[in-house]
Amino acid sequence: MNRPQQHILSNGLRVVLVPCEAESVAFGLFIASGSRHETAKTAGISHFIEHMLFKGTPTRRPIDITRAIEGRGGNFNACTGEESTCYFVHLPSEYLEEAVDIISDMYLNATIPADEFAREKDVVIEEIKMYADEPDCVAMENLQAALFPKHPLGRPVAGSAKSLGPLTPDDLRQYIKAHYLPTATIAVVVGAFEPEMALDVVARALGERGGKSLLRRDKSVASPLSTPAGDATLLSRRNKNISSAVLLPPTPEVVARKDVNQAQLALGYRTFGIHDERKYAATVLDAILGRGMSSRLFQEVREKRGLSYDISSRMQFFQDAGFLSITAGLDAAKGDKARATIDRELQKLVAKRVSVTELKRIKEFLVGNFRLSHEKVTSKLFFYGNTALSFDRLVMPQEQVEAIKRVTAADVQAVAAEIFRPENASVSLVLPKTMSNGRE
Are 241 and 260 in contact (CB under 8 A)? Predict the structure, then answer.
């Protein structure tokens, strides 16, 4: 099959084509607009826009959009994060033109009718309430707020009833006009298709839309420039002109009381961003700690000590900051023991290098997991779309595989010492209301 390729249309919109063996094709639009582009007053508008783009265009009712996709056996969805929003569709390969036409119509021509707007605002607020009833979601939301206090990265992506309440349909239209620009958008096609045909289809659908560059317009994004080492992390070209704000120190601890029987623990350490080369060592570190049932935390906390039913870790990188989180559900009375056990495991990684055998196993796990995920057309779609947004270039999978393979035991130990400092840490607890405290 042909190799992945990138093209830039005359209006600045980038097109990434990834032909591969498949029975299907996936098409997605990745827009460099997420919750960190919002102000406190507009918090949640990006996520709300994501909902509203499915509510019709001048030529399609909401049910027309749904039937056009599901009627061909396909599926479609969208997701909003801190730094991007994505709309995608997955269909049998012969329906590429329909996929591009539908998603492009939503992106370019969403009408945001008043009646649909009012109904969907209620739906989004109910979604926010739903997350507020889930202790693990509360623990993670509070953790991120504690790691990035008074910063857009610390706000919930969905916003709040307070911030969504005053919004009007015209607010959404104006926000789309300012942020959904060709220079801030990447179109990705993955699957069984002819590259020349696919490029022509995308260019006809999206190549005529104009708009000023987001780099010149958007001054609203606060950019944390501190890392654990205290050095400034370089931003990508796409974000180089955004305003900057030095991060406040993390809030050490936040506790929420809920009507629950089990406590939720979320421990986090603020880190560097995605452009820092240490991210590969941090990814290996994360896998050693809490990726899978053979990880150190799972074995030590659950299997050996029975302190938690489940425990895991996760690395998340933004343009210029990031964090490593460790989450567990446990009996609140065992909270101190669990935290002490976790802390010991973290300090072991600082004090002693990982063995050759463990490092080899973890790197094989990461590479194998990455390769298996790339058998899915939609996984490829998100890999190429997200990396193109982050790095402003076409990133090949082998580049990341080789970078993981190059990580040494010394790299892991060094990044552990850099990350696992008290000044980088926050802990978020969700405890039962009936307990006087979360300690033994």
Answer: no
* Same domain (yes/no): 301, 161: no
**What is the average pLDDT across 91-100?**
97
In this structure, are 288 and 394 located in the same domain?
yes
Q: Are residues 297 and 150 in the same domain?
A: no
CATH code at position 69: 3.30.830.10
**Does 50 qualify as catalytic in the annotation?**
yes
For 351, the domain range is 253-432
Same domain, 341 and 402: yes
Task: Give the pLDDT mean for 419-438.
Answer: 87
The identity of residue 394, as a single letter, is: L
Interval 395-417: pLDDT, tens = 999 999 999 999 999 999 999 99
- Which one of 50, 97, 141, 345 is the catalytic residue? 50
Give per-residue pLDDT as tens, 340-381: 999 999 999 999 999 999 999 999 999 999 999 999 999 999
